[in-house]
Design a protein that fits this description.
Helix content: 40-55%
Strand content: 15-25%
Distance between the termini: 52 Å
Length: about 800
């Protein structure tokens, strides 16, 4: 025999009840079925409200009772078609009349006892069972309605009665075994040995079904609800959560204890003891597999099966030297709270016995502190125990899985994932079964933590990254295009989804909480005025997991905020050279801060655009090599200029060509002054281990100093035109010697310099085409023949590609 239980949403109205009938009818063709039903949707709340209004001497309770009668009568009228409608309506009205009389008594006496409240609450299930049983009968499904009060016997602990299992099992077997009809039983209510109505507390209808299933040794207990089963996480928080097809009893109990609301742990104890499986199904999607819960443990299942959480938690910490070695402290702590019905949901204790930390519901904090201050008044006065520490606005997140105990490094992976996203763990507890790891975090971090852990333990199909991009000009525009082009490929092949969460340029910024797909029109039309402080504040407030701040500008003010961003546990990817080439102390601080916060500060494109120069040097250093010298042509823009500067194209026109192609900085004076190359060789020197400052680099410039006094770039370009002779002289001199002009950089013996050279055919620089860069790295391992990195070193496309590569390296962590 199968026992099915349908909750309030499943029997909310006539339409839903028809779905229930179809489900049970299908089961009846194969097995005998007993169905436990809850009150119609919303009825229990209305009943409670009626009682409270009557207690408050508010006659509005009479209007609510009229609404309740109408709801039930109309439901019956839609469902019952076999000539028994009038009889059913009479039963309904009689029960409503009885209910009204009790409410009137509460109104007159201005009192409601626990016993009366229990009796009131039972009307919802009594009414629904009558209507649903007749609805089955009217569809030629022979049905008998048995009142649960005839089956389940309890004590008189009203509100949460304790079941007499021996007597209840005897009653159930006598009433049910041998019946060949469809059986409807109302859930939630029971009766004492003295025939006084009681209720089974939270999850009472599930409990009714479990007790009956256990008594008759049912094949399975099916709990039908409005979700497809137990999910890997709360789908309202983790959009990629999915239904778990199988769980062990223990896994189900752990998940439900920490907030998974599909089942309530105490209610399935009767079937757990008998080894009867539980199947969670969706009334509104009956073809879905649901979640099958049994005693079986799947050894091939993932270590972490699911995540759950409890919100509104507070930590209370009892600490003091007077606790060490003293027996009974913990007993007094827990007894004090237990006697006052304050449930402890989290416990952790230092092995030194110096500290005990407990987690309780936030609403009990004041009461708990007062009680503990009284209990430990003597120790507090003598200084043996310190003042009780209270931390509020917290939540508990739990990782659950039977196979966690077989998984090495799971705790480390958990802390790494959370730490990389700036989620601070306030406390941790793990049971000896190693089936559960519970961590306490700030409530504001719950969404981020659940999503990060869901992705980290492969519960999510895809990992999501959130980009906050400043700078959507040449490089930024190309980057967005590349991301869009690769989006489908990355999702399919690497299970990675890159989402642009914010965009900004010098004028407008745009945050889209649904994420930005098309941006060009939106940024200018919907964006607000750019405010850097607000941009950072909003990014931090959104608190997205796997966030990366991307700087595609050459703006010094933006470079100054990297520390704040990194300190917020958000990685930084920068094509902007200013931070890495600023004071050595700042360069070092940013890199150390990134390491401390377990995030990344990447700036590969600061040197040679998309060429892997910095990455190569870092790999050499990490593997134990030592850099002795670097020789390089590091300006793709200057190389382009000197490769195109000839007797037919003047120097100023060549500079304009480079600007139009997007090879130079927005202000070409940065390139032509040599400052850009100075920054690049400075960064490479620092990556090689040198403590070098910008003003320590020698610069043998080739542009007359007075030209740089021009305030506007337009005036500077005009000045270049007016000084054609100077540049032509440099070109001719090189040409006559069969040489080419190259702006080079060198780092050796802790010193660096940049300058214009005329190089002959024997030089590796001679054959550099277009905007190419070349970097020759000499080291202890590359003494005679340097390690050479060569390729395109300028241009929006390759720079964007380098930025994208940095983003991907973070994604692959």
């Amino acid at each position: 025999m199968k026992v099915l239980k349908f909750g309030g949403t499943s029997v909310a109205n006539a339409e839903n009840i028809l779905k229930v009938i179809d489900i049970v009818k299908g089961k009846n063709q194969k097995d005998n079925v007993l169905t436990v039903v809850s009150a119609l949707g919303g009825v229990t709340n209305s009943i409670l409200e009626c009682g409270q209004l009557a207690l408050d001497r508010n006659l509005k309770y009479e209007l609510l009772i009229t609404d309740l009668e109408t709801k039930h009568v109309e439901t019956a009228q839609k469902l019952i078609t076999n000539g028994k409608l009038r009889e059913t309506e009479t039963e309904v009205k009689n029960l409503i009349s009885e209910f009204k009389g009790i409410c009137h008594g509460i109104y007159l006496l201005n009192e409601i006892t626990a016993k009366t409240r229990d009796y009131l609450l039972g009307f919802g299930e009594r009414l629904s069972a009558i209507i649903i049983a007749e609805a089955f009968d009217s569809r030629e499904i022979p049905t008998i309605h048995i009142d649960a009060r005839e089956l389940i016997i309890t004590d008189e602990n009203y509100g949460n009665a304790n079941v007499d299992f021996d007597l209840s099992y005897l009653n159930i077997r006598e009433k049910l075994i041998g019946l060949n009809k469809n059986v409807i039983v109302n859930g939630f209510i029971a009766s004492s040995a003295k025939k006084k109505q009681t209720t089974l507390g939270r999850g009472g209808s599930d409990y009714t079904a479990a007790i009956i299933a256990s008594a008759i040794n049912a094949d399975v207990l099916e709990i039908w609800t409005d979700v497809n089963g137990v999910m890997t996480a709360d789908p309202n928080i983790v959009s990629s959560a999915y239904t778990l097809e199988r769980l062990s009893y223990e896994e189900a109990m752990e998940l439900s204890h920490f907030g998974a609301k599909v089942i309530y742990p105490p209610t399935i104890q009767p079937v757990l003891k008998k080894g009867i499986p539980v199947l969670i199904k969706n009334t509104f999607a009956p073809d879905e597999k649901g979640t099958f819960i049994s005693k079986e443990i799947d050894p091939k299942a993932k270590p972490v099966k699911g995540l759950s959480h409890i919100e509104k938690v507070a930590l209370l910490t009892l600490t003091g030297g007077g606790m060490i070695g003293v027996t009974g402290i913990a007993t007094r702590l827990f007894s004090t709270l237990s006697l006052n019905k304050i449930n402890v949901i989290f416990i952790t204790q230092a092995s030194s016995e110096h500290t005990i930390t407990i987690g309780i519901d936030e609403s009990f904090v004041d009461n708990a502190v007062e009680l503990l201050n009284i209990e430990f008044a003597s120790e507090l006065q003598l200084g043996k125990i310190d003042e009780i520490q209270v931390e509020e606005k917290l939540s508990i997140v739990a990782l659950v899985g039977d196979n966690m105990k077989e998984s090495i490094g799971l705790s480390g992976k958990t802390f790494h994932a959370l730490g990389s996203n700036g989620v601070n763990v306030r406390a941790i507890a793990q049971g000896s079964t190693e089936r559960n790891i519970s961590i306490v975090i700030k409530r504001d971090d719950v969404k981020k933590a659940l999503n990060v852990l869901h992705e980290s333990f492969f519960l999510s199909e895809v990992k999501k990254m959130h980009l906050f991009i400043i700078g959507v000009g040449n490089v930024g525009n190309k980057l967005l295009a590349q991301i869009e082009e690769q989006k489908a490929y990355l999702k399919k092949e690497f299970k990675l989804e890159i989402r642009v969460a914010a965009l900004a340029n010098s004028r407008k910024m745009l945050f889209n909480h649904e994420y930005l797909d098309s941006w060009q029109g939106e940024l200018m039309e919907q964006g607000e005025k750019t405010d850097l402080k607000k941009f950072i504040a909003t990014m931090k407030k959104l608190n997205y997991r796997n966030s990366v701040f991307v700087d595609n500008t050459a703006n010094e003010e933006i470079a100054k905020i990297y520390a704040e961003v990194l300190n917020s546990s958000i990685s930084v990817v920068a094509s902007n050279k200013i931070a890495a080439s600023s004071e050595y102390s700042n360069y070092k601080y940013l890199n150390e801060l990134a390491t401390k916060r377990n995030v990344k500060f990447l700036y590969e494109t600061n040197v040679a655009a998309g060429l892997p120069v910095i990455r190569t040097i870092r790999s050499m250093i990490k593997s134990g090599d030592r850099i002795s010298k670097i020789e390089a042509v590091l300006s793709g823009s200057l190389n382009f200029i000197f490769n195109n500067f000839n007797d037919k194209t003047s120097f100023d026109k060549t500079v304009k060509m480079a600007m139009d192609e997007g090879y130079t900085e927005p202000d070409p004076r940065i390139d032509l002054s040599g400052k850009d190359v100075m920054r690049k060789i400075l960064i490479l020197a620092r990556e090689s281990g040198a403590k070098l400052e910008f003003d320590e680099i020698e610069n043998e410039g080739f542009i007359p100093a007075e030209l740089f006094k021009k305030e506007k770039s337009e005036d500077f370009l005009e000045a270049l035109k007016n000084n054609k002779g100077h540049f032509e002289q440099l070109r001719k001199k090189a040409e006559e010697a069969d040489k080419k002009l190259r702006f080079t950089a060198i780092f050796e013996d802790g010193k660096a310099s940049v300058g214009l050279l005329a190089v002959g055919k024997e030089s590796p620089y001679y054959q550099l085409d277009g905007k190419d860069n070349i970097v020759m790295i000499y080291s202890e391992r590359y003494k005679e023949q340097p390690l050479i990195v060569k390729g395109a070193g300028a241009g929006a496309e390759v720079t964007a590609s380098g930025v994208f590569a940095d983003i991907m390296s973070i994604a692959n962590e």
